[in-house]
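Issue: ligand-bound run for flavin-adenine dinucleotide - logging full I/O for the record.

Environment: standard queue, default settings, no custom constraints.

Inputs:
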Amino acid sequence: MIQSDVDLQPYNTMTIAARAKHFCTATTLQEVREALRFARAQQLPILPLGGGSNIVLTGDFPGLALHLGMRGLEFEALDDGVRIRAAAGENWHQLVMRSVEQGYGGLENLALIPGNIGAAPIQNIGAYGVELKDAFEQLTAMEISSGELITFDAEACQFGYRDSIFKGPAKDRYLICEVVLKLSSTWAPRISYPALEQYFAQHGLARELLTPAKIANAVIDIRNSKLPNPVEIPNAGSFFKNPVVADDQYQTLKEAHPELVAFEAGEGWKLAAGWLIDQAGWKGFRNNGVGVHDRQALVLVNPGHRCGSEVVNLARDIASDVKRKFGVTLEPEPRFYP
Ligand SMILES: Cc1cc2nc3c(=O)[nH]c(=O)nc-3n(C[C@H](O)[C@H](O)[C@H](O)COP(=O)(O)OP(=O)(O)OC[C@H]3O[C@@H](n4cnc5c(N)ncnc54)[C@H](O)[C@@H]3O)c2cc1C
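Outputs:
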């Protein structure tokens, strides 16, 4: 079951060639436990892998890359909605489409986000004004040190913007094995996000006639028009989080750049990182096989299948240029390994 010296290029959407000292795909909880025992015995670090759409491999991984391939997707009808129980290895987009095909609303804005269920809670995936946490009920995770299964409800997950306990105090301590979502039968479209509003206005679709499936199709159209398909142009989605700044910094920036794109976020403002990168002149930039997507400056692309350090160097250059020009710090969204 456990292989040695394995190329991870097929397991990351950036298509970075890096090798794992050991690799295995686990399809049952028993296999996950056995893989953990193997790693523990040799004191190997673990790299949990789903679809590999939110990682950057900066070099060879000196431990066990553990691909979580457990399958299983159940819909349980309830009096007031539906409960969806999904194993870590199920594909996120397919789950969204299964739910909208059955007429359930709640996940449609999150259509076409790449990757698997197991990774979705890690950064509380979000798009077009909706986040995983809005439909989240609980998850089951295996503690890496003991192999024990532990349940986390939404509060325990400490979800935030592209954030959860699994990126903070519980980082590298658990493998998410199953996620349970609950969708309510009382549904209202959430289309206040500007790109969605524009889409429905342009297509002459009235709010009263919208269904979860129509919104999912709109989201798919919008995403396809802006974001590169990783199968054609290797990428890891948004490379930077949208930075949140205090009101005074926002006001100063807005005065200097009246067209600044920003959204209110609590007491501060979330700035569109893509706008900052675009204004700094990076959109469409290419150098030696790595670059910035020409339709969305937030996405770094790797059409030359270059190594992780080339991608990281480009990201550093962009972040320091944005810092110099706007005084704003950009933080990467994907996780770097090792
Ligand atoms: C084109 C494109 C568009 C994207 N758009 C969005 C978007 O709109 N919104 C958004 O939020 N994200 C977006 N992303 C990022 C990405 O799709 C999500 O972060 C997704 O949840 C990653 O899933 P994955 O299975 O590929 O995770 P991976 O890349 O395999 O893993 C991501 C992280 O989670 C860990 N991990 C994976 N599975 C588990 C598990 N079962 N247990 C514990 N840890 C685990 C990994 O070790 C790693 O640290 C986009 C990516 C791409 C390429």
